[in-house]
């Protein structure tokens, strides 16, 4: 549909909104081959009051600032697609949970290509996935049993396929494109030896996590990877995500501050840093500069460490028995920043 909207944007600039809406309402074919006739809710179109008495060309801000993905103008006008909320503006802000109708056919076509009967390992592949998911063959055929699964099971089928079958880059790229073009809340994640489906992370968080895992020691990087998977998995596990986040930070700072201790933890490390900070001759300093050029106070680091471990039920003795999903995600973000900074020399001995 992207080319359709670029055509609509061009016509909007040259001919005005009425002609553009007429063009948009014509039947169009989407990237997956489905033909539909979009509808425009003109009652929801908003034009600034400052446009009164001016021509459309004078009113419309030039140059247009298009959305990075769809090419749609990002201000001055709101067009709502009645039958498809994914096409409402601004499109870049819309992610759809679950398996919306427009993703069902592309995902089914993808699985059919993966389990193509012409592939020499087709029967073995299909049987392995069915056994993993507890799917029985239909009339003695595992592929037919797989095809008869309801739409709500599609993501689980794809996840099992990724876990069991060694797919080529073309298959992975096609699956990745389906989730991106379909504005899915899920994405193809490649943090493991094997890719998997997970909930989409903000782009900035992805960059921080990737950098942290690159700079961190092996054990810390492994714990951080486990935390990401648990927090953003298809079926997230907030408790595991938070625990792995804490362990990732422990793996990088405890050997540094307490190299001879076999019972070191974030709480004991923070206590040691606080004692050192209050001593007459501190042994530790932060490489981060303060407002007057001197090293920043150690409390800046210990506060972040306390924020992480005191909210963790293993350390904090909280009444509730489980972490929330929000706490799990926050812990991953904070742990990634701490692991990256400590791994690259934020904390050092004087």
Q: Summarize this, please?
A:
With 350 residues, the chain is mainly alpha-helical.
Write the layout of secondary structure elements.
Layout: H1 2-15, H2 17-24, E1 28-29, E2 35-36, H3 56-59, H4 101-114, H5 122-133, H6 142-147, H7 154-164, H8 169-181, E3 186-189, E4 196-199, H9 203-215, H10 218-232, H11 238-257, H12 266-277, E5 284-286, H13 299-310, H14 313-316, H15 325-343, E6 347-349
Antiparallel strand pairs: 1-2, 3-4, 5-6
Helix pairs in contact: 1-2, 4-7, 4-8, 5-7, 9-10, 9-15, 10-11, 10-15, 11-12, 11-15, 12-13
Mind explaining what this structure looks like?
- The protein is mainly alpha-helical.
- Helix content is 51%, strand content 5%.
- The protein has a two-stranded antiparallel sheet.
- The chain is built from 15 helices and six strands.
Key terms for this structure?
350 residues, mainly alpha, two-stranded antiparallel sheet, two-stranded antiparallel ribbon, 15 helices, 6 strands, 51% helix, 5% strand, disordered N terminus
Rg to the nearest angstrom? 26 Å
Strands of the widest sheet, in order across it, are 1-2
| Overall number of strands | 6
- Give start-end ranges of low-pLDDT stretches: 1-21, 27-90
Proportion of β residues? 5-15%
Task: Using the alpha-carbon principal axes, give the shape.
Answer: elongated
The SSE order reads HHEEHHHHHHEEHHHHEHHHE
Secondary-structure-based class equals: mainly alpha
Helix content: 40-55%
Largest sheet: 2 strands, antiparallel
